[in-house]
Amino acid sequence: MTIKEDENNDASEVEETAVTDHDEADDQVLKREKKKNSKKKKSKKNVEDDGAAKPKKKKSKKKHDDVDDDEDSDEDEHPKEKSVKKKKSKKESAFMDIEAQVTASEETGTGKDSTLTIPPAISTTGQIRRSEFDSRQSSMLATSDDPFAIREGKTLLWRNVNMTLKTKDGADRKLLDDVWGEVPEKQTTAIMGPSGAGKTSLLNILAGRAKTRGKVTISSDVRLNNFSVNPTDISVRKHIAFVAQDDSLQVTSTPREAIYFSAKLRLPRNTPEKNLQKLVRRMLTELGLDSCADTYVGGALLKGISGGERKRCSVGVELVVRPAMVFLDEPTSGLDSFSAIQLCQVLKKVANAGSSVLFTIHQPASEIFNAFDRLILMNKGRVMYQGLVEDVPSYFRKRNHPLPKNYNPADWIMNVAQANTMQQLDEDGFFPKDTRNLPEPFAETMEGKDELGITLTEHHLEKDFDARPPGVFMQVRMLFTREIKNITRDTAAVGARFGLTIFLGILIGLIFRNVGKADPSQPQNLNSIFGALLMVLLMSMFGTAQPALLAFPEERPVFLREYSTNHYSVVSYFVARFSMEAVVTGLQILVQLLITFWFIGFQSSFGMLWTTVYALAMSSTALSVLLGCAVEDPKLGQEMLPLLFVPQMLFAGFFVAPDLIPSWLRWARYLCTLTYAIRIALVEEFGDGCPSDDGSDPCLNLLNSIGAEPDDTWWNWLVLVALFATFRLFALVVLQQKATKFF
Ligand SMILES: Nc1ncnc2c1ncn2[C@@H]1O[C@H](COP(=O)(O)OP(=O)(O)OP(=O)(O)O)[C@@H](O)[C@H]1O
Ligand SMILES: [Mg+2]
Fold this sequence. Notes:
By secondary structure, the chain is an alpha/beta fold. The chain is 55% helix and 9% strand.
């Protein structure tokens, strides 16, 4: 008789003598546990004698066969991992014993989870078993080219998770009601339930991505390896690989590049290039993306890979870094059944490598359903079932909803959840209460930052320079290279930007043709030259600030996803974007001036005019980047454009003399970059004066009227540069805030 069969018999005995009286039930459970403890000793002896523990059920053995095969081949490759895996299988059998202990307690209404699954990386006394993951293994993982290499797992537990919505009539609506559960390491846990049951809400709360602003309040007790954590904390979020329902990938990257980008920036810096390439190739093959590996991801305006391929690519981007925890929101939605099975197999392999995998799923095929380890069934914000998938049929049968023959269990449980009222289900005994006996969470101050569950891996990585992910320089380099690819591949956007510049340059050039060569002492000519100069400056402002304003809101989802999953720092992103903008803006101004300067025939030097126009463009761009970082929606950004330009023109002093502006508003012109740029350009053009026949000097009069003093040119330069720096700095602060708050 196998250990499990023995225990199953115990469980069925309990079934027969099911009692409603809790005290009686508890007594029975205690007796069983005592009995089992003595049996466990015997069984352990058997296990040692036999050399291997027999699996709980034949079905579950079959389920793991694929994985075992896979691991066998891995062991051939990495002898060092062999010992780790042996440890792992020991842990697994221990895990099974813990599960066996609680089998009998189901009838008490507590379900299998009434006993806490103790995270294996932590002992019950709260001491971290440091031998569990030594530095040798950490460096082995760093240099491994296997996406399914063994990694240190983490166990996430939660209870009392509540999400309440204040409705219009002031009442509270519970979106999540005392939700509890756990995601043990090395297991796949699926969250299922009817639409609106709260699956995404729960997943978002656990991943620290729930929107709390507005009328929604959230409270939760979440523990990572039994350290209390606040999932909204960016440092916690960074440890969770999260695949959202909406894909946010760089439109102009290919799946190969997207996965490589993630691997390069998130894996240790000492990972050899050929290993990175091999990791990426393996990930692409595992996810069935080989045929589209070099096609653009695409988006609304650029045709690229299919929706299902995009989804798998998003999954690959997260899995390639061998995360300890992986959360996915509906990873199989939009996939055909073959791809869905393929994806689930990949998730299974990830779990077998040590990760805890949690995902929401709609209507899985029975093949997929039976491949999960655990299930959390949600219904109207409450936990209808929480436990092992293989226990689902008996759980439903005991509650008078037996699974009909030849019926997909996933469809059946959804049917039960939807066809019955909550009251009916309550009466039938669904919605188990959380009776797990959780130990007190570990103190936050234990070993510095250990409350995050960042135990050994991070400590080692922090000490070992080579095992850390690449630094700022590599981050900027990768981002910059991606930006260049983005610009050169998105030819429509670049074509429109430069095409428009050329067209407007020619138009202005034709209209003001040779105006610069006319005698400025004639008022009419002076006005025309001033108009030409103003047009050139305004054109540069509009032409460069507009794309910069829209760039961030458009790229925001990608930036937030990448930042929150630890691809790069805000500063790296900012520097890379700024460098790219500086280059593109410089080129754009050059093209514009090459056309207009020679057409119009300005008297100032080309170099000087280019520098002035470039400085204006860069400082206006800085202001628009600040606005762009502050708004979340590209449409809102577009609507804010007038806010950027109208005040500039009003306060620059050429439509209305500065003295006529109400004194309480006059200060605003000091913030307008155009004010300073036009002064510098005018001094360059008319600084030498242009005496007329009547003895007056219209050029100097013009300079005086808008406050452009030749002696103050250096001051104007200084302010222009200072404004540029200030706007940029503010933009960086706003971006940093937005990034850490996430929403
Ligand atoms: N921020 C919010 N403000 C108002 N209502 C919310 C908010 N977030 C979630 N809800 C509500 O909570 C309920 C659960 O939403 P959730 O998105 O978690 O459902 P779901 O189970 O993921 O559904 P689906 O299967 O359709 O994706 C829904 O009724 C939804 O309208
Ligand atoms: Mg959802």
